[in-house]
Amino acid sequence: MSGTPTIGTPAIGTPAIGTTVSRAEGAVYDEGLRAFFAYRDLGVRAATGGAFAAHVIRAIPGRHAVPQWHTHDLGFQFVFVLRGWVRFEYEDIGEVTFNPGDTVLQPPMVKHRELAHSEDLELLEIVSPGLFETAMASG
Q: Which pLDDT tens digit goes with each residue over 31-88?
């Protein structure tokens, strides 16, 4: 079909992306947006020229969420819970607890806050663009 991208050919306007591998063994977790979480950059932001980012996020034992309403100025935010649990509150659907295997696709600019999480929480977050603004919001 004319105009249909083939495997290995990026679509128009898409950065050229090479195969990118991030190993769990020896992975480094750094500080990030929230002081009660540690973030492992999976290399997606660098590989996509900032179009996307992916992180594994872990709870830091002994640190807990401070529930603050906020929004993220981005086009796409997807979360997959790998281990433990996390409870969020969303302006549109209310309070939700996510367990291992649960996912959430958060719409752009949805007001939300984290209420609590388990000490062993680990989740995968994929966002676009790779860098975005977070703004505090009133409840």
A: 877 788 999 999 999 999 999 999 999 999 999 988 889 998 999 999 999 999 999 9
The CATH number of residue 96's host domain is 2.60.120.10
**Which of 95, 96, 105 shows the shortest CA–CA distance to 139?**
95
CA distance 101 to 17: 28
Q: Name the residue range of residue 69's domain.
A: 37-136
3-state secondary structure of 59: strand
Number of domains, the chain:
1
Do the bridges between strand 86-90 and strand 53-59 make them parallel or antiparallel, or are there none, so unpaired?
unpaired
**Residue 133, burial from CB neighbour count under 10 angstroms (0-12, 13-18, 19+):** exposed
What span, in angstroms and rounded, lies between the C-alpha atoms of 45 and 76? 14
Q: How far apart are CA 135 and CA 57, in angstroms?
A: 20
